[in-house]
Amino acid sequence: MDEKSVLISLDRKDTYCTLEFSDNEKFELGYLEVRKNCQCAKCKPRQINEQMKIEFFEEISRLMLVKPKVEQVGNYALRFEWPSGCSSGIHSFEHLRKISESSGKKL
Ligand SMILES: [Zn+2]
User: Fold this and answer.
1) What separation in Å is there between the alpha carbon of 45 and the centre of ligand 1?
2) Helix or strand holding residue 101 (H, E)
3) From the CA of 9, how far away is ligand 1's center (Å)?
4) Which residue has the higher pLDDT, 61 or 99?
5) SS3 (DSSP) at 12
6) Residue 94: enclosing H or E segment and its boundaries?
7) For residue 64, what pLDDT is reported?
8) Ligand 1 is a single-atom ion; what residues have CB below 5 A from it?
9) What are the tens digits of pLDDT across the range 68-80?
10) Among residues 23, 37, 42, 94, which is most buried (max CB within 10 A)?
């Protein structure tokens, strides 16, 4: 894994979290963005094309926002547990960094 993708701290707020990576880059990332990009067996198949993504995002937007539980998985990923239908999504640090850069807010 690229060194810049190592997550060194996570601060959970009500609607977003703050992620800090080992290269001192910090991002604010909404839980909605994390969920939209979930790679679990339930969510991933719903992101295969633009039309499906739109429907998936609309559905999530209606469900949310509930603060998910977050648990570290080994030293490479986080597991987000949502009260609404998705609980096994493992988000690697690399994946979180990618979402942070594309949909998060750089601090
Ligand atoms: Zn999921």
Assistant:
1) 10
2) helix 93-103
3) 22
4) 99
5) strand
6) helix 93-103
7) 59
8) 38, 40, 42-43, 86, 89
9) 899 999 989 999 9
10) 37
